[in-house]
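Example 3.2
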Amino acid sequence: MLYAVPTALDQPSTFGFIVSKAVGNAVTRNLVKRRLREIAVQSLRAYPQGLSVVVRALPPAANADFGALSNDYRKTFAAATSKFRAALPAAEQGGPAE
C-alpha cells in the first residue's frame, strides 16, 4: 500500500515506511525496508519537493524479489499521484525514473 499527499512546493519530499511483524522476522523486515528505500530513491529524484509518501509493506512483500517489489511500487505510486501530478515539480512528468 502506498499513500501520497502533496505538500508545500518549497518543502522537500519525505518518505516513510511501515513494515510490521506480520511481514516476517527482523531480518526479513529489514530486507524489505532496504529494498523499498532503494526503490523510493528514484521517486525522490523525480519529485525532490512537494510530496509526502508513506509505504506500508504487506506480508507478501517478504517473498517478493526486488523486481516485483519495484513494479508494485511504481504502479501504486503512479495511481496515488495521478490526481495531483500536474502540480508537482517533477524532473519528468511521466513519473519516477526507471
